[in-house]
Specification:
There is one protein chain. The chain is of the alpha/beta class. The chain is built from 20 helices and 27 strands. Strands 9-6-5-4-3-2-1-10 form an 8-stranded parallel beta sheet. A 6-stranded mixed beta sheet has the order 11-16-15-14-12-13, sandwiched between helices. A 5-stranded mixed beta sheet has the order 18-26-25-20-21. Residues about 1-5 and about 725-728 have low confidence and may be disordered.
């Protein structure tokens, strides 16, 4: 679907919207604001009576077609929009979004989103409740699995890429959860958040702003309260920022029963007050609350809610439906089934995406890739052959029967090399029972190499899966210690939705690969990397903590007046653990090596409208083909507000042959080197900017650039240009 190229097409949409709105009764208008799920309390006649403007969890073509036929029985024949949580795949599952972020590749993000959308659109889904644009610095929060990690620049780039990919594949998007949902107190899902306004603007809002710029059709309000005001009734977020400052003209939906939850938040005494506060704040659509349809007619007729407010919400929804071409689109073919997926093509894409996401955390003694002399491998661990768990949370229509497990992937690859594979689970899925430990040790002792596959079963990750302990659950550590004690080389593959607390295992296990939840083709992708058919190129999209006591933890923190000194207790530190991460943000090893040389800043003095351009020679100094993610960080060392020690501002993934050198240029517009004040004013202050370039957030300093004039941009002048879209 392409962008509308003229104002005339947009004017035509607005004319049609206003004409239709002028024909609608109050009840028909409010019906458009009702989003209801398949199953109770939905009655099919609600659709034919015009009481459902949108429907979710319709994931079969037959049901979609039936609902579309019922909608045509209404007086005005307004089509509903069909939504579903398509986060990292529909039937074919791609790596979970946090894993996908490790690819540091907008191309990969667009690719995975496009193919996920194509499958869902095939059976009639039109709208996904994705991407999740919530930045999170706290791995205790289970939903960190759905996002992009801790960095606002990486998040902005990948959120935009995901919006574009979903749209290209045929799905409108609902960027969620607006806003601050990823920073709950104590890492507890659904808990309150406290984020100063300037921090919201600088850190938590940029990925959402990127979603607007990329053309997201809708937004979803978050469950949480932000600074004491629930997001579902927060006019600062939904009206002042999203609409007035950014110029967003799509619609906002609540999350599941989010409007009803205003009673639990303690800001509404009953459903009528909750409905009133939500719509006046800017929530256009009520998901599974039934408060709008039950209470708004009375609120409007009593004068407590102006009908013009309802009209504006309906206008936004109709505008979106017309932009998507829903009025002209033929009904879904009810004979279509998702069992035609995964296809050979989607499996190929899923394998490619998964390969790019794997992060080689450490590789002492070059345990990986599997050496030529290895004739036998012991594959140990319950997650090696866990087809359901490798799909990860929120797997839409994913079927475990479609998965090729890590064990299967290793066996297939080993067979081609004449290598024997022995599988010993050692314990049950949650590793509560280790009756199989001795068999696992025996398998290890009789093999040349041990590949241990452990981590976090799917049930322990995702929504409503906050954890106070992030050590490997059950008796996994006991098993891994026993494997290490055999003296055989061990490579640990971690299947999980977040970093795990490794403790002494990082010293005991020489090689560790983070595989996230790698999806349907996770097994072949992991085998590709373990055997060296693919060179790992993933980078950590979040800092890997040493212990859960460090959380929340992130690289781009503010400086302290007492920076860490090793021999001074009264400086920034812990008395019982290093303050540094186990593995830093942006970290990831390769089977080859890279060098950065001859870095240069093209123009050391920068004015308004200029671009910071940094060129560097990136060389593959090893013996294998490889990809490196070159990362550019900046720091504003002296400003009117304390600024982070480092901030990622640009990155590029570069493929290099052995011995090859490429000169690359990383670019940052001067207008992206500033920060916000609490009122939303954006400030780029005159003065020096320090520049760092390298392969992680520990990149080397390469020099300074000077901003020669202060730039001040009022909030309403930083509007996001929206990509207008035609029918998909």
């Amino acid at each position: 679907m392409g962008a509308l190229s003229t104002g005339h097409a947009q004017d035509d949409v607005e004319r049609r919207v206003n004409e239709l709105l002028g024909q609608m009764t109050l009840e028909e208008k409010i019906g458009q604001l009702n989003l209801i799920s398949h199953g109770p309390p939905l009655r099919w006649e609600d659709i034919s009576e015009g009481k459902a403007g949108a429907l979710l969890n319709f994931n079969s073509a037959a049901d979609v077609a039936r609902a579309q036929a019922l909608a045509r029985q209404t007086r005005l024949k307004i089509p509903p929009i069909f939504g579903l949580d398509v986060l990292h795949g529909f039937r074919t599952q791609y790596p979970i979004p946090l894993g996908e972020a490790a690819a540091f590749s907008p191309r990969i993000s667009r690719l995975a989103s496009e193919w996920a959308a194509k499958e869902a659109a095939y059976i009639g889904v039109q709208w996904t409740f994705a991407p999740m644009a919530d930045l999170s610095r706290d791995s205790r929060w289970g939903r960190i699995v759905e996002g992009f990690g801790e960095d606002p620049h990486l998040g902005s780039v990948l959120t935009a890429a995901r919006v574009e990919g979903f749209r290209q594949g045929g799905l409108a998007t609902a960027a969620k959860h607006f806003a601050g949902y990823g920073a709950p107190q104590g890492g507890r899902d659904y808990d309150t958040t406290y984020i100063p306004p300037a921090e919201m603007y600088d850190t938590y809002l940029p990925p959402f702003r990127a979603a607007v710029k990329a053309g997201s059709a809708s937004f979803m309000a978050a469950f949480n309260a932000l600074n004491g005001v629930p997001s579902t009734a927060n006019p600062w977020l939904l009206t002042d920022v999203l609409r007035n400052q950014w110029g967003f003209d799509g619609f906002v939906t609540s999350d599941w029963a989010g409007i009803h939850e205003l009673l639990g938040h303690g800001i509404a005494k009953d459903g009528a007050e909750a409905a009133r506060k939500a719509i006046l704040a800017g929530v256009d659509m009520d998901m599974m609350g039934q408060l709008y349809i039950n209470h708004l007619p009375g609120e409007v007729r009593s004068g407590r809610v102006p009908e013009s407010v309802v009209d504006e919400s309906v206008r936004r929804i109709l505008r979106t439906k017309m932009r998507l071409g829903l009025f002209e689109r033929p009904d879904t073919d009810p004979a279509r089934v998702d069992s035609i997926f995964p296809s050979a093509e989607t499996r190929k894409v899923a394998r490619e995406v998964a390969r790019e996401t794997l992060v080689l955390l450490q590789n002492r003694d070059n345990v990986l890739p599997v050496a030529q002399g290895v004739r036998s491998i012991a594959v140990v661990g319950p997650l090696a052959d866990a087809p359901h768990d490798q799909l990860g949370p929120h797997a839409a229509r994913g079927h475990k029967e479609d998965s090729v497990t890590v064990l299967q992937g290793i066996r297939q690859r080993a067979a081609s090399a004449g290598i024997t594979v022995n599988h010993a689970p050692a314990c049950d899925l949650f590793c509560r029972n280790t009756d199989g430990l001795q068999a696992a040790v025996d398998a290890a002792e009789s093999s040349d190499l041990v590949i241990a596959v452990f981590g976090e079963p799917q049930e322990l990750s995702g929504e409503a899966a906050s954890r106070t302990r992030l050590t490997l659950n059950g008796r996994q550590v006991e098993v891994l210690e026993a494997l290490a004690a055999t003296g055989k080389p061990v490579a640990l593959v971690i299947i999980a939705g977040r970093p795990m607390e490794l403790g002494q295992l990082a010293d005991r296990i020489p090689s560790i690969v983070m595989a996230w939840y790698p999806g349907t083709e996770g097994g072949p992708a992991v085998a590709d990397v373990l055997f060296g058919d693919a060179n790992p190129s993933g980078k950590l999209p979040l800092s890997w903590f040493r212990t859960v006591g460090q959380l929340p933890y992130y690289y781009n923190r503010l400086p302290s007046g007492r920076p860490t000194l090793a021999n001074n207790r009264f400086t920034l530190q812990y008395i019982d653990e290093a303050i540094t991460p186990l593995y830093p943000f942006g970290w990831g090893l390769s089977y080859t090596s890279f060098a950065y040389k001859e870095a240069a800043i093209a123009k050391p003095r920068l004015g308004a409208g200029d671009t910071l351009k940094v060129s560097v020679d990136l060389a593959n100094t090893g013996a294998r083909d490889g990809q490196e993610v070159a990362q550019l960080y900046t720091r504003d060392p002296v400003a009117t507000r304390s600024r982070p020690l480092r901030e990622l501002k640009a990155f590029e993934k570069v493929a290099l042959k052995p011995g090859e050198t490429k000169r690359i240029t990383l670019r940052v517009p001067v207008e992206e080197l500033g920060f916000h004040l609490d009122d939303g004013t954006y400030l780029v202050e005159a003065g020096d900017i320090e520049v760092f370039v390298g392969g992680s957030s520990q990149a080397e300093a390469i020099g300074k650039a000077e901003i020669i004039e202060t730039i001040r941009i009022p909030p309403t002048e930083r509007r996001a240009s929206i990509s207008r879209s035609t029918a998909q």
